[in-house]
What we know:
This protein is of the alpha/beta class and 206 residues long. It is 47% helix and 14% strand.
Amino acid sequence: MNKFFETLTSDNAVLTMIDHQVGLLVSCRDQDPHLMTENIKGLCSLARTVGLPTITTASLSDGPNGPIMPEIIDILGDKVIEREGEINAWKNAQFKQAVEATGRKKIIMAGIVTDVCLMFPAISAVEEGYDVYAVVDASGTWNKVVADAAIHRMTQAGVKVATWASVLAELMEDWRSEHGMALGGLLAEHTSYRWVYNNFLHASQK
């Protein structure tokens, strides 16, 4: 099947969280910071729920970029690939090898900032035959103009631009699936879908 039409499953994808570091998060102004945090938590939680392999990396965490945001550590654990200087995570041997070790060709990718930490490795991975889903609402950058420019460039290079809720729905596929209700609960926890979900739960208890 053509990779552009093959859907995400819990067996063919890996999640990479790139440089969600507290020093970089301070400058993200293209979306509401509280909403962005919920999107990041939702993306990490869905990966844990369906059992996706996950890879977290940081750049110069002892410097001004700071450590990985604690919300990610709480969900995915404290294993972080520390890069010594590569801006493009794909050019870090340990990070790239970690992706290759999963044996999966679909990469769900988010990064701070969108136009550097997400865009560069996304384009590089596509060049090497990977099918990359750039989750832009679990990423962030300086302003909307910068985010839009990054989205255009990634799209031109063949990166699939996505949101965390669309990734969740694609992985769920069917409400009757093994993780259907759990994933619905994540949407309820991290988005305004909570009203729909809570109404469904209420109605089902009658």
